[in-house]
Amino acid sequence: MFFLADLVSEESIGQSYNYWGQFVNMMLTLGCILVLVFVTVYFMKRMMRSRIHHLNSSTGIKILERRALNSKSSLYLIDVLGKGILISESPAGIHVVTELASDVKVEEKLEELLEAPTAIRETFAKKLKRLSSRNA
Q1: Cβ-based burial of 56 (10 A; exposed 0-12, middle 13-18, buried ≥19)
Q2: Exposure of 106 by Cβ count < 10 A (0-12 exposed, 13-18 middle, 19+ buried)?
Q3: What are the tens digits of pLDDT across the range 50-95?
Q4: What is the largest CA-CA distance in the chain?
Protein backbone atom coordinates (compact mmCIF):
# COMPACT_ATOMS: atom_id res chain seq x y z
CA MET A 1 0.00 0.00 0.00
CA PHE A 2 2.93 2.33 0.59
CA PHE A 3 4.17 2.03 -3.00
CA LEU A 4 0.80 3.26 -4.35
CA ALA A 5 1.13 6.38 -2.27
CA ASP A 6 4.40 7.17 -4.02
CA LEU A 7 2.83 6.74 -7.47
CA VAL A 8 -0.05 9.09 -6.75
CA SER A 9 1.75 11.89 -4.99
CA GLU A 10 0.83 15.53 -5.16
CA GLU A 11 3.85 16.28 -7.37
CA SER A 12 2.80 13.88 -10.15
CA ILE A 13 -0.79 15.20 -10.16
CA GLY A 14 0.40 18.79 -10.53
CA GLN A 15 2.56 18.05 -13.58
CA SER A 16 0.88 18.39 -16.96
CA TYR A 17 1.35 15.72 -19.60
CA ASN A 18 2.05 16.98 -23.11
CA TYR A 19 -0.19 14.80 -25.29
CA TRP A 20 0.32 16.88 -28.44
CA GLY A 21 4.11 16.62 -28.19
CA GLN A 22 3.95 12.87 -27.68
CA PHE A 23 1.55 12.51 -30.64
CA VAL A 24 3.85 14.48 -32.94
CA ASN A 25 6.82 12.43 -31.74
CA MET A 26 4.94 9.20 -32.45
CA MET A 27 3.92 10.38 -35.96
CA LEU A 28 7.48 11.43 -36.83
CA THR A 29 8.78 8.05 -35.68
CA LEU A 30 6.12 6.26 -37.71
CA GLY A 31 6.98 8.35 -40.78
CA CYS A 32 10.68 7.54 -40.44
CA ILE A 33 9.92 3.83 -40.14
CA LEU A 34 7.65 3.90 -43.22
CA VAL A 35 10.27 5.76 -45.27
CA LEU A 36 12.89 3.22 -44.20
CA VAL A 37 10.60 0.32 -45.21
CA PHE A 38 9.86 1.84 -48.66
CA VAL A 39 13.53 2.60 -49.33
CA THR A 40 14.49 -0.95 -48.32
CA VAL A 41 11.83 -2.50 -50.57
CA TYR A 42 12.92 -0.28 -53.50
CA PHE A 43 16.56 -1.27 -53.20
CA MET A 44 15.74 -4.96 -52.71
CA LYS A 45 13.62 -4.98 -55.90
CA ARG A 46 16.36 -3.18 -57.79
CA MET A 47 18.98 -5.60 -56.50
CA MET A 48 16.87 -8.63 -57.48
CA ARG A 49 16.28 -7.26 -61.00
CA SER A 50 19.99 -6.67 -61.53
CA ARG A 51 20.77 -10.12 -60.16
CA ILE A 52 18.30 -11.78 -62.54
CA HIS A 53 19.66 -9.72 -65.44
CA HIS A 54 23.20 -10.74 -64.53
CA LEU A 55 22.20 -14.41 -64.27
CA ASN A 56 20.44 -14.22 -67.65
CA SER A 57 23.47 -12.71 -69.37
CA SER A 58 26.07 -15.03 -67.88
CA THR A 59 24.44 -18.46 -68.28
CA GLY A 60 23.08 -20.67 -71.04
CA ILE A 61 19.60 -20.67 -69.50
CA LYS A 62 17.72 -17.37 -69.75
CA ILE A 63 14.29 -16.55 -68.39
CA LEU A 64 12.93 -14.29 -71.12
CA GLU A 65 9.44 -13.68 -69.82
CA ARG A 66 7.10 -14.72 -67.01
CA ARG A 67 3.34 -14.45 -67.17
CA ALA A 68 1.21 -15.15 -64.10
CA LEU A 69 -1.99 -17.00 -64.93
CA ASN A 70 -3.32 -16.74 -61.38
CA SER A 71 -1.77 -16.48 -57.93
CA LYS A 72 -0.52 -20.07 -57.98
CA SER A 73 0.40 -20.77 -61.60
CA SER A 74 2.66 -19.13 -64.16
CA LEU A 75 4.03 -19.58 -67.66
CA TYR A 76 7.73 -19.07 -68.35
CA LEU A 77 9.36 -18.50 -71.72
CA ILE A 78 12.96 -19.62 -71.36
CA ASP A 79 15.88 -19.87 -73.73
CA VAL A 80 18.13 -22.87 -73.21
CA LEU A 81 21.26 -22.57 -75.35
CA GLY A 82 19.34 -20.86 -78.14
CA LYS A 83 16.27 -23.11 -78.03
CA GLY A 84 12.95 -21.67 -76.84
CA ILE A 85 10.92 -23.61 -74.31
CA LEU A 86 7.58 -22.70 -72.75
CA ILE A 87 7.06 -24.22 -69.29
CA SER A 88 4.25 -23.99 -66.75
CA GLU A 89 4.59 -23.83 -62.99
CA SER A 90 1.74 -24.74 -60.67
CA PRO A 91 1.23 -26.47 -57.32
CA ALA A 92 1.02 -29.75 -59.29
CA GLY A 93 4.59 -29.23 -60.52
CA ILE A 94 6.56 -27.89 -63.48
CA HIS A 95 5.67 -29.11 -66.96
CA VAL A 96 6.97 -28.43 -70.46
CA VAL A 97 4.15 -26.92 -72.50
CA THR A 98 5.96 -26.73 -75.83
CA GLU A 99 9.39 -26.53 -77.37
CA LEU A 100 9.83 -24.04 -80.16
CA ALA A 101 11.56 -25.00 -83.38
CA SER A 102 15.33 -24.62 -83.27
CA ASP A 103 15.30 -22.17 -86.22
CA VAL A 104 13.11 -19.70 -84.27
CA LYS A 105 15.19 -16.99 -82.59
CA VAL A 106 13.23 -16.51 -79.38
CA GLU A 107 14.90 -13.31 -78.21
CA GLU A 108 14.45 -11.63 -81.62
CA LYS A 109 10.77 -12.60 -81.75
CA LEU A 110 10.26 -11.27 -78.23
CA GLU A 111 11.84 -7.94 -79.20
CA GLU A 112 9.53 -7.76 -82.24
CA LEU A 113 6.53 -8.34 -79.99
CA LEU A 114 7.66 -5.61 -77.61
CA GLU A 115 7.87 -3.20 -80.54
CA ALA A 116 4.48 -4.31 -81.92
CA PRO A 117 2.17 -2.38 -79.52
CA THR A 118 3.14 0.94 -81.12
CA ALA A 119 2.27 -0.47 -84.55
CA ILE A 120 -1.02 -1.79 -83.17
CA ARG A 121 -1.80 1.60 -81.65
CA GLU A 122 -1.06 3.33 -84.95
CA THR A 123 -3.27 0.88 -86.84
CA PHE A 124 -6.06 1.33 -84.30
CA ALA A 125 -5.77 5.11 -84.57
CA LYS A 126 -6.03 4.92 -88.38
CA LYS A 127 -9.09 2.66 -88.18
CA LEU A 128 -10.68 5.00 -85.64
CA LYS A 129 -10.07 8.00 -87.92
CA ARG A 130 -11.63 6.14 -90.87
CA LEU A 131 -14.68 5.24 -88.83
CA SER A 132 -15.07 8.77 -87.51
CA SER A 133 -14.72 10.25 -91.03
CA ARG A 134 -17.40 7.85 -92.34
CA ASN A 135 -19.82 8.84 -89.58
CA ALA A 136 -19.25 12.56 -90.16
Answers
A1: middle
A2: buried
A3: 776 676 666 778 887 888 888 888 888 888 877 888 888 988 888 8
A4: 95
